[in-house]
Predict the structure.
Amino acid sequence: MKTQTKEALQAHGANGHGHARNEGTYRSQAERRAEGKALRDAVPRSEHSGWKPPKDRPDPVEVVLAQNADRVPPLVPIRHGRMLQSPFAFYRGTAAIMAADLAHTPVSGLRVQACGDAHLSNFGAFATPERNVIFDINDLDETLPAPWEWDVKRLTASVVLAGRHIELKQSETARAARAAVRSYREHMAEYAFTKALDVWYDSIDVQRLLETVLAEEDRARVEKRLEKTRKRTVTEHDFPKLAEHVGSAPRIKDNPPLIFHPPWLKEVEASGQLKAAWARYHDSLPEHIRVLFDRFYMCDTAIKVVGVGSVGTVCAIALFMAADDDPLFLQIKQAHPSVLEPYAGKSLHDNHGQRVVVGQRLMQAASDSFLGWGEGHEGRHFYVRQLRDMKMSADIDTMDDKLLRRYAGICGWALARAHARSGDPAMIAGYMGSGHSFDEAVCDFAGDYADQAERDYKAFVKAFREGRVKAVVES
């Protein structure tokens, strides 16, 4: 693998955070683009093609099991059960495996604030504080400054696995994968010529997508889901579904094993640790949001199982009330070190909840008003956001070849926009160029890596059958 030294990264405009930084002599957009193009001499675009596992590659099952060390033991079998559903589901839960593999692949030396887990299901629609609905990356638990290519490759491999999951023809899956990389490259080229403030203010408005990107047959279906999402309020939908009145105070309903009140949570509350954790979260909020948050009173907290990769970490929901008909649900997610950290360097933030929040604000066009971080029981790091705020995710299982291709292209666009905020779009665009060389190389890698993910999945299934992996398959 051809790598870049620390000195080379600094020469390419990366500061200690891994973000683009202009120092010294001013360089025009054309000059930066030429510098990016020159990086091909050290790392030709064709070198991104293909994938062969290194001889010392760790056992993928052991990598999965090692991540269970700090997880809630009764929830670990649920995590494994969700990963057993398909190779695509397994891929969603194994960012750590791919991070180690990506460390063996070529990189140009340019860094951005990376997602770290940029697969298709980690993109979606949600409401901005101004109540507009935008499309963006919506899960950034693994975010860290890292090579931009790593996110592109993880996204493209996920497209291949999604295509296989919904049983598309090989040619249809290949077109969808190319759509993701091409969209990333073409939009990065546009951002290279866009004013810095305009890049920062840019967002992917869902209404804009409906009018300009989606085909007519898809538009009606998405508009119907969007309208339903907009009408779903916390008071009328989430509160009756998730809460009940016990005496005079509302309480989160138990729905084990997915929502429950563990005994240790009562002990944490009684000891004052829970109150202290919320105080630390409160201090992480901007002052104007603190004023809003202070209107609410905490009523209850419960564990809530979410996602695939996050299952088993301490994830919870908290119910706050400002009045009898004025609820607020916040989601608390435990934050571990990023899976990229062993290969891209340690975070500058001691609290990994803060790492997630800073990365989220860097990558997203707009972030949740209640986004904050803190430290809780037994020194666990966490971050907080609203549980649901007009959130809408894609249903991969219902897609056909055309919709997957369009959706992959939108995800490629969102990833380019996110990378352009922290990286140098002119240099990245200069490296990729205007032809299809980079697209073809990454798609070739994605096909090979999807094969690898399927082999890892088979090894995981075998480990389950042999009793090495304990799993609960949900009905």
About this structure: The CA atoms of residues 361 and 367 lie 6 Å apart. The longest strand covers residues 315-323. The first helix runs from residue 6 to 11.
